[in-house]
């Protein structure tokens, strides 16, 4: 039933168990949020999922395929894309060129001489479609590094979408955003669920409770509980370790 599954992931940093037998499942079309206090192991988990870190034990499975031995690149090709918090944007290039490079990387074509004109045209069309999908169609000719923070984040999501992922990993997409930018990002993520599942790591609880179908709570490297937003909101243990006693 699940599209994506993490089974018993263990990662040790010296004596510290950063992820302690973490298991979770994401259903097709689900937005699954991962929350937890600072240092809970969220980024360490995401890094093992994307392939940046190799786990000491456990497996990562997408659509029945064991991704654990695969490189980051292979995982992307298998359908798992991740946002990189802007770091992979080429700031001197235009939005269009950034998108073209991403599209080209995933279609296997290149900008060599003697390339059929139709192929070049279809790359441009794909880049423009991506821009439209995320609402950057009016910024195609702008220099990526000169965009406001929220728009750069949005471009980063568009670059991840170029790979046509089955599962999109988002590590704090709202970080550093103002309320308007956050609201736009919520709308964008909400629209993605038609085409893919999303694993969302986010500290902005308003966004998490609005978007998530289910929430996993990570504490000291372990999954404390999994549930719907209502179940999580009303869980006394979660309130004690994370949400505080005030109503969220
Ligand atoms: N490369 C590393 N070497 C040693 N310890 C690390 C390393 N990366 C993370 N840690 C430790 O592992 C634990 C989990 O860190 P991680 O960054 O995964 O937490 P997080 O849930 O993403 O926190 P935050 O909400 O602050 O982003 C922390 O105690 C952290 O100090
Ligand atoms: Mg983190």
Q: What's this entry about, in short?
A:
The chain has helices at residues 42-50, 72-78, 95-107, 117-134, 149-161, 179-192, 205-211, 229-233, 236-243, and strands at 4-13, 16-26, 31-35, 57-62, 65-66, 80-82, 167-171, 197-201, 214-219, 222-227. It is of the alpha/beta class. It has a 6-stranded mixed β-sheet with strand order 6-7-8-3-9-10, sandwiched between helices. Strands 2-1-4-5 form a 4-stranded antiparallel β-sheet, covered by helices on one side.
**How far apart, in Å, are the first and last alpha carbons?**
31 Å
Cα Rg: 19 Å
* CATH topology value of the largest domain: Rossmann fold
| Topology pattern, helix = H, strand = E | EEEHEEHEHHHEHEHEEHH
Ligands in the model, by name, code or SMILES, are:
adenosine-5'-triphosphate, magnesium ion
**Going across the major beta sheet, what is the strand order?**
6-7-8-3-9-10
The percentage helix is: 25-40%
Low-confidence stretches: none
- What is the SS-derived class? alpha/beta
Number of domains: 2
Gross morphology:
globular
SS element count, helices: 9
The CATH homologous superfamily of the largest domain is termed: P-loop containing nucleotide triphosphate hydrolases
- Bin the strand percentage: 15-25%
Largest sheet: 6 strands, mixed
User: What is the subunit organization of this protein?
Assistant: single chain
Query: At the first level of CATH, what is the class of the largest domain?
Result: Alpha Beta
Q: Care to count the β-strands?
A: 10
Mean pLDDT: 91
Question: In the CATH classification, which architecture of the largest domain applies?
Answer: 3-Layer(aba) Sandwich
